[in-house]
Amino acid sequence: MTSTILKVDRFPQVGASTMKDVPVLSEIEQVLAEWIPPAASVALAVEERYVRYRPGEWDIRLKPGDPVRTGSVAAHVMQSGRPVETDVDEQVYGVPYHGKGYPLHAPEGQRAALVVILPQQFPRAVSPRRVIVGRDGEVWRPIPVEDIAWFESYDKRTWLHSPQGKFTTIHTLSALEAQLPEGMFLRIHRSYLVNIRWIQTISRDIHGALIVEMRHPFGQRLPVAHGCTRRVREVLGF
């Protein structure tokens, strides 16, 4: 999580039941738009109590005026003054949850926190892989992803091709698509996932299908599947 600190102009009186009149600046609105899925509830805490609560599908049943309890995400945020993301067990509020909390710049030096409340099983954002371990017999070699020209699936195995050599990896192409840095690799075929930076040229074969030629020292010509053609053209812009 980043160390963003959000700002509000003033806080409403404890006891109101909605968030509609909370005067927030664009920083909070941006965070809400970026982070909050339908499953999430949202809580706004000032000092020792919650002043706003908007229940979502995962409702921990807070009310304005409820205390900020020790062990909650709001308590962690106000104690540290920094963003906090952690799981909270059911002993705190009776319902386990995964919380993302953000410190707020409050008027008159008040401590405050905005907390996004999610199920503990909610998918987390995963940092992209920067290294893939390749195997050659009984030797394993970490390969930086920028050095991998393409991944290939055949013979019920996944292979990676790099200047260091050709290796197998335990990851499937589908798993790699989700784990690699966004915008670096492109699926051109059910059997090929290529590093865009390693593409030398794109041309057509005698039947009009696209062919991707990889840069030196490889020079391999890889077919683009008909079902991937539109996506390839959109991503590469031609």
From TrEMBL:
Keywords (alphabetical) are: DNA-binding
Keyword Transmembrane belongs to the record: no
Q: Which InterPro entries match?
A: LytR-like, LytTR_DNA-bd_dom
Q: Where is the HTH LytTR-type domain?
A: 132-238
Q: What GO terms are given for molecular function? A: DNA binding; phosphorelay response regulator activity
Please provide an example of a Pfam family that matches this protein in its UniProt record: LytTR
Record protein name field: LytTr DNA-binding domain-containing protein
Recite the lineage of the species: Bacteria, Bacillati, Bacillota, Bacilli, Bacillales
